[in-house]
Write the structure tokens for this entry.
Amino acid sequence: MPDLVVRDLHVEVEGKPILKGIDLTVKSGEVHAIMGPNGSGKSTLAFTVMGHPRYRVTGGAVTFDGKDVLAMPVDERARAGLFLAFQYPAAIPGVSVANFLRTSINARRAERGATAAAGEVKRHDMPIPQFRKLLAEKMKLLEIDDSFITRSVNDGFSGGEKKRLETLQMHMFSPTLAILDETDSGLDIDALQVVSRGIEALRAPDVGILLITHYERMLRYVTPDFVHVLIDGRVVRTGGRELAAELEAKGYDFVREELYAGKT
């Protein structure tokens, strides 16, 4: 089973250290929630795992299914089964949702490297009837209207519609590790419930989920196996679902007080 293993990860942005020694293991079949105040490094962790060039790794290691993730280009990470749902998805005017999804799926199915000649990309496009059937199934699961797929990607979408599209992408791509960066941001209660059901529907023995969130409310619908608290670039506390409820009630100050007790 493919596991994500992060060891002593240090990352900086424009010369400023953000992650200062992250240790984290997300096993297949597990849901891990990461919570923390603004600026603690939650999104930095997500973008680093996916290979955003702005984030420079200065130490540590990230492996997935035993392979060195940091040595992979971004497209190879996607084909390896990694997926990131953005907090602020970009709009792509003029590109329909249906075309975007089919093009993305086919790109993920392409082969490079040892299985193809140098510089060559082998295509294994999903047949159109298979794509349409899969898309219809996933749209029904996520309660998405048929008109949705003819619209331009995120162009004029509400916050809830953008997050539904992110969830639809996740189901269409069938990742083995899904990283969700504040997917609950900006959602009303109805949209939150739909998106949460979509996340829960992805749970499987061969799928790991890393859920980044500010708020305990999402974890009322998506039950995590582990909750990690990230403060000042480090995982400072790990617990179960009850830890999220404690954070909701007390805020992060009680964790800071425990962390820095006796250090002043």
The helical segments are 42-50, 74-79, 97-109, 128-141, 159-173, 189-202, 241-250, 253-260. Residues 159-173 form the longest helix (15 residues). The chain has a mean pLDDT of 90.
